[in-house]
Amino acid sequence: MSINPLSNPKGVKLLCELCQKPAFIQCTECRVTYYCGVEHQKTDWLGVHEKICQLLIPLRTQLPFLTSEEERDNRKQWLLQQKMDLIELTRTTGQKLLFEGKHDQAVPAALQSLKFAIDVFGLASINLVPSYLILGEASIGLGRLEQAEEYLMQANWTVLKTPECSNAIKSKLYRNLGLLYAAKGDYDEALRQLADDIYHSAQEFGTDDIRTAGGYYHMANIFFRKNEMAVADSLYTRVIDIWHKHLSGIIKVRTKTPLVARGPGPVFDDEIEEEDKLDEAQEAEAVQVLNAVLDIREHTPSDSWELVKILHALAMLHFSLKTLQLETNTARKLWKSHQKKKVKNWKQ
């Protein structure tokens, strides 16, 4: 990240990426992003800009003149796919930062995802809701409950207007509403919202899926605060069981011994299993949840077997992340090289 002071060209209104106030500095890496000051540039860089810096260039630079209609259609489809990819990338990044407790850095990622979603789907689309939810959860984490409520009410209104809204989106909405009411100290209403979260998540993914486990986890936290330890313990146990089973499946696939040919001809494995990989946000969620429950178990009377199971789940998680990191570092280098080539070819 470097700073490039600028004076706005005559007739051109440059606005800060985060606050939309007049901008006075420019990102020197992409030269298509502007900020009102160093603080907002730093926040955006740490939150998401480092990941998407080069990807913004073709989206914010005037397109070269294309003579044929086919070329224009191809360019339009390419740009649309770029925006769709950026929506997914920025949302995953924002969710990951939330699980890491970096609520201030999650805001730029969520804002970027919202901008791209509005550009692609329009202002009233259900596809904007995931971005509103990240902004809402970030605001809860920052203690800005009124702002959080505004984001969540906007998400809720969009869901109500969309009969075909998926159970997955409804689940995330009710989970965030549960977190909002818990932050306000209204535990009864929080539990009702989280019960709706679990219901809709179970409808979409099943009762024993890691995407449903988050509802159990937050519900357990509320019972823990209410000092209803028996209920909290049972829910924490459910969460650990779900994550332990999921991680065991990943390790089983990753450590499976490949078949060895015992004669001429190709080797066919009729029982090939596809690894159910975790995305960045799910990795961060697993780290947060497992360590949080471990800390609770270590400081409260609990079954020693439960403690062992958490430790085993954490060991599997770290093994998975370590082996994946080696692959990811190589993939990241290749990806960055590929993006630079794409931008170079686009300019030509």
UniProtKB/TrEMBL annotation:
TPR repeats lie at residues 171-204. It comes from the Eukaryota. Keywords: Metal-binding, TPR repeat, Zinc, Zinc-finger. InterPro entries: TPR-like_helical_dom_sf, TPR_rpt, Zinc_finger_MYND_domain, Znf_MYND. One of its GO terms (molecular function) is zinc ion binding. The keyword Metal-binding applies. Residues 16-53 form the MYND-type domain. This is ZMYND12. It comes from Bugula neritina.
